[in-house]
Specification:
Blueprint lengths: L3 H10 L3 E5 L30 H4 L4 H10 L3 E5 L5 E6 L18 H11 L9 E3 L5 E6 L10 E2 L6 E4 L4 E3 L4 E2 L2 E2 L1 E4 L4 E2 L2 H7 L18 H18 L6 H17 L5 H15 L3 H15 L9
Parallel strand pairs: 5-12
Antiparallel strand pairs: 1-2, 2-8, 3-5, 3-7, 4-5, 4-11, 6-7, 9-10
């Protein structure tokens, strides 16, 4: 059996942020709850829900403590690790291919054909063979441009990608008894430009400023300051912390909503604007804000007039 502690330390030594997966499973071992179920009882969640991405680390001491306790699988958080991983699957029995892909049995053929249409080839990079005999191709995230997100089938059937907001099962782990193994051990190549272009999201249309009428009294000034503080917290958050920071901000404003000092629509609007300005996708920001407002509503905060 592979030494999971040694493997986790080796991945971290490359600068890849790792976190524990349930033994022989793809699911994160921690936390054991979702953002909208967070009660704050977990010590790490006392300032707001902390998910697997924020818990991922390169700290050898933390890694030793975790993997000395149980034979956890190893997850690599792609965003903090500045990785883009292309996940190439094998066609499943009975899987119907879209028009033009009827004879394709492997995502690598799809990706190779796509590269050829752009006058490129699939060059060697760090490669992992998955438990189901698929392939993970690791690439360095572009140093400029927006954060790339996860995709499913955007490039073609049997081709997914993982980056910010996503993770992969690392080599030396097993899932359902099937091992993930290194097929080519070398430093990841930079993500090819043609591939980066296909994965870069379209720019958002210009956003109109959100105006919230809170009156002119002392309570209005307090709420305005609270909104400004949370918006600034979100828009200045570091990459990899933006989603968690947005959740924490939504919890804070959700308390004011529950206390009657702010309408839910106004809180949702200003936070969505802040999330988009910080670089989050609108759908992602919306879901995070809904979870945070719901959690904040459990602890109403009233503002004296």
């Amino acid at each position: 059996m592979p030494d999971l502690l040694a493997a986790a330390l080796a991945h971290a030594a490359r600068g890849w942020h790792v976190f524990p997966l349930r033994p022989d499973d793809k699911r994160p071992a921690f936390p054991d709850h979702t953002a909208d179920q967070c009660t704050g009882h977990d010590p790490r969640c006392r300032a707001g829900h902390v998910g697997w991405e924020s818990r991922a680390t390169t700290d050898p001491d933390r890694i030793r403590r975790a993997w000395s306790a149980r034979p956890y699988g190893i997850g690599i958080a792609c965003g903090p690790s500045r990785l883009v991983v292309v996940d190439l699957d094998i066609r499943k029995p009975g899987q119907v291919m879209p028009p033009g892909y009827e004879g394709y049995g492997y995502g690598l053929r799809v990706l190779t054909g796509l590269a050829a249409r752009h006058g490129a080839t699939i060059d060697p990079t760090y490669t992992v063979t998955t438990g189901r005999r698929g392939t993970h191709l690791y690439y360095q995230h572009p140093t400029t441009g927006p954060d790339l997100r996860n995709t499913a089938g955007t490039l073609g059937p049997m081709v997914d990608t993982r980056s910010h907001g996503g993770y992969v099962v690392a080599a030396a782990s097993t899932v359902a008894g099937r091992p993930y193994t290194v097929a080519l051990d070398r430093d990841p190549d930079p993500l090819p430009g043609w591939l980066a272009g296909l994965l870069t999201p379209a720019p958002m249309p210009p956003q109109r400023p959100v105006v919230v009428d809170l009156g002119t009294g002392r309570s209005g000034a307090y709420v305005r300051a609270a909104i400004a503080r949370e918006v600034d917290r979100v828009t200045t958050a570091a990459p990899g912390e933006r989603n968690r920071t947005l959740y924490v901000a939504a919890v804070a404003l959700g308390q004011l909503v529950a206390g009657g000092a702010l309408t839910e629509d106004d809180a949702q609007s200003v936070l969505e604007q802040a999330g988009v300005d910080a670089g989050l996708r609108t759908v992602e920001a919306f879901r995070t804000i809904r979870s945070g407002l719901t959690a904040g509503a459990r602890r109403p905060r009233q503002v004296a007039a």
